[in-house]
Amino acid sequence: MRDKKRPSAVQLKERADLLTMNGITTRETYFEALPLLFSIRQAAASIKAFAKALEASAVTLSEGAAAYAKDHTTALDEPLHEAAKGKTVGTVVIGTNRYTLTLTDGPLKRESGDNMTEDFLKGLPKGWTKIRHELDVTSINQQGVDKDDLFKHGLIRTEKRAWTMKTAAEAADWSEGEVQS
Fold first, then answer.
1. Is 1 helix (H, G, I), strand (E, B) or coil?
2. What is the residue-wise DSSP string for 10-45?
């Protein structure tokens, strides 16, 4: 059961939307926005963790039901059959819903279960791998490239803004003048 003193994620979102719409233009709204920001992040992390657990349950159920359907010829009203090259389908009606099982080749993985390391990829036949171009931010930073040179090449640096929070108990070394009530 949810703690009645803590606002729901919906209430947090509604308050954030209202603050955003009206703008953070006063000290009062500024002092409301910061704690709200962290409450929203905490709620989002909880929701994300729960959504991940739900998806894991769905994947497990899907795999189990597919294995059952493949192993039991009477599990499907329309048995598994090749619908197209590399695509096998079968269906079952439960209540007013029709469920279709589609079997296709999944993504390539290493037989050993190991990661696709560079050494492994180098050993594959020619034409089975490709070079992937990506921005080397580490190199750009190490070279000390200035914003004018970046702009000449169609790049800009945006300002990164981040808030962190410590409770008064976590920050026992605060001087009394720094603690805001």
1. coil
2. HHHHHHHHHHHHH-S-SHHHHHHHHHHHHHHHHHHH
Q: What is the pLDDT of residues 121-158, one digit of tens each?
A: 999 998 899 888 889 999 999 998 999 999 999 999 99
List, for residues 67-97, the tens digit of each pLDDT value: 999 999 899 999 999 999 989 999 999 999 9
Residue 54, domain member (yes or no): yes
Buried b (16+ CB within 10 A) or exposed e, 35-62: ebeebbeebeeeeeeeeeeeeeeeeeee
Q: How many helices (H) and strands (E) does the chain have?
A: 5, 3
pTM above 0.90, yes or no: no
> φ and ψ at 104, to 5 degrees?
-140, 170
Range of the domain at 30: 1-71
The answer to the question of residue 27 being in a domain is yes
Residue 118 within a domain: no
Task: Please answer whether residues 103 and 80 qualify as being in contact, where contact means their C-beta atoms are separated by less than 8 angstroms.
Answer: yes
Number of domains in the chain: 1
